[in-house]
Amino acid sequence: MPQETILIVEDEAQIRKFLRISLEAHHYAVCEARLGEEGLALCAARPPDLIILDLGLPDLDGQQFIARLREWSPVPIIVLSVRADETDKVAALDAGANDYVTKPFGISELMARIRVVLRDARQPSASQRLFESQGLRVDLSQREVTIDDRPIHLTKKEYELLRLLIAAPGQVLTHQQILRTVWGPAQQEETHYLRVLVGQLRNKLGDDPAHPRFIITVQGVGYRLALPIALDDNVQGSDAN
Question: How much is the pTM?
Answer without folding.
Answer: 0.56
